[in-house]
Amino acid sequence: MSRARIALIDDYQGTALASADWSRLDAETVVFRDPWRSEDHAAEALRDFDIISLIRERTAFPASLIARLPRLKLLSMTGHRTTTLDAKACTENGIVVTFTTSPASEAAAELAVGLMLACARDIPTADAAMRRGGWQEGRRMGMPLMGARLGIVGLGKLGSKVAAVGRAFGMDVTAWSPNLTPERAVAGSARLVGKDELFAAADIVSVHLTLSDRTRGIIGRDDLARMKPGAILVNTARGPLIDEAALLQALEEGRIKAGLDVYDVEPLPADHPFRTLPNVVLAPHLGYVVGDAFAHFFKASFDNIEAYLAGAPTNVLNPEVIGRERPR
What we know:
Pfam families: 2-Hacid_dh, 2-Hacid_dh_C. Belongs to the D-isomer specific 2-hydroxyacid dehydrogenase family. The protein is α/β, with parallel strands linked by helices. It is built from eleven helices and twelve strands. The chain has two domains: about 5-105 and about 290-320, Rossmann fold; about 105-280, 3-Layer(aba) Sandwich (Rossmann fold), CATH 3.40.50.720. The strands form two sheets. The chain has a seven-stranded parallel beta sheet, sandwiched between helices. Helix 4 (about 105-120) crosses helix 6. The longest helix is centred in the last third of the chain and has 19 residues, at about 290-310.
């Protein structure tokens, strides 16, 4: 293969080049920091690259985009699981896909707690009023967390962390997921309740499920309708877990509040109605965006690219492609 061209995409915070010694590679490395405007934009910019390093789920790679990248031989993905990369299409086109481990980080759980507090105490609008010269006038009364009921949807690693913090705040912590048992709930600092009860009784609901065909849209219109007036819904997991149209209606009607870090379409379109609602606290998918995690991601992606260029690819997601890769 002639000197490879590497695209480091999705580097929104500009940390990729400092995370590894890319000059060690016999390759031309180009960084792309901004989100793509469209699939056409991505295809045009990336069509002459042999290797692409991407941050999991920031840029979608459906079969239609993969077919428009004739030189692509390696996709070096951060993380191990993604719903936005068509690995089958990569395999069919002889493209190697590598993955990285995820760092031990509870950052997404910490952000969920931050969004709870921001919603419960109306912190963003209070901050905005202070910057305009105001004080307490017009401020809504806050909700104390001590004594409130917290409902955790998905009591895995991150859900359990949020549950433990809820307990530390003196909250009554309940949990539900499709396969959760009473014993696992207790081990995760919560008690098991039915889905209907969780949504009807909780003052705050925090979502921590993994997105899959089984969980897509698992929180629907009926669930949101059961929530108490003024209750808070926090989602730092994945946008499509919740019926977005139903959530938007509940928010526009002022029935509930929400703290959102994830959306059906990312980046969130500039004209999306969520951006105009006073009862929503918005974050731009920051759950796992912390320095230590990204230093790990980019260094691990570098290691996978270096191994590939040396002819001994490691951490291959589609090992069946080895032996019939695109010519290098």
